[in-house]
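Much of our argument rests on the idea that a fold can be written as discrete symbols. Part of our work consisted of pairing the sequence of a single chain with a tokenised description of its backbone. No coordinates are needed to read the tokens, only the vocabulary itself. The record that follows shows the chain in one-letter code together with its fold in token form.
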Amino acid sequence: MPARNSRKEYLENGFYHLYNRGVEKRIIFSDEQDYAVFLSYLKEYLLPKDEFELRKKLSDPTLSYKEKDKIIKLLSLNNFADEISLLAYCLMDNHFHFLIKQGSSNSIDSFMNSLGTRYTMYFNRKYERVGHLYQGQYKAVIVSSDEQLLHLSRYIHHQALFSQGNALRGWELPSSFPEYLGQRKTQWVKPEEVLNFFSKDKSNYLLSYEAFVRQNGNFDSVSKLIIED
């Protein structure tokens, strides 16, 4: 019997919760470098690629071989800036969560396969291992209401803030929560779809997105959208 959310229904302009975890629940981010590499891949896939400027640089006769090779790789790299909007994310030790809006109906599958394959190659090379890194194909479930959209973003950021591992690390897990608080601006993270539901009056904390995330409560409204145990 297929695992929950393994069967995917793709719709144009649909909102989705995407997640995956390590095979046998193994660690997929062992140190800060692993997190940084994964985030750098997201950036390269989701930021618009200026091919004209890249080709202009490539024609520079003073460019080193290493710099030329990097530009050629960037030119050949898939880009999803016009197709994928990343609304929220959180990277855990052994799994990750994305809240995404896609354009065409096949955008997510192309994006996730590119990201998953590339990171697996990096991880296996670094740790001298072979084989699958993830527990099967990524899971995807469509978000069908505004309520689900809001509470799913809350669930994702809640994971980063209140994970048991945080106290041991002494630092917060990588997530888009700083973008939602206005503490960081990242071009490839798009919090506006969610933040438009909340007050922009900073003097009224109780109506803010931060208060919404930090409140105690269950996630019954999104129980079908989140990762199974």
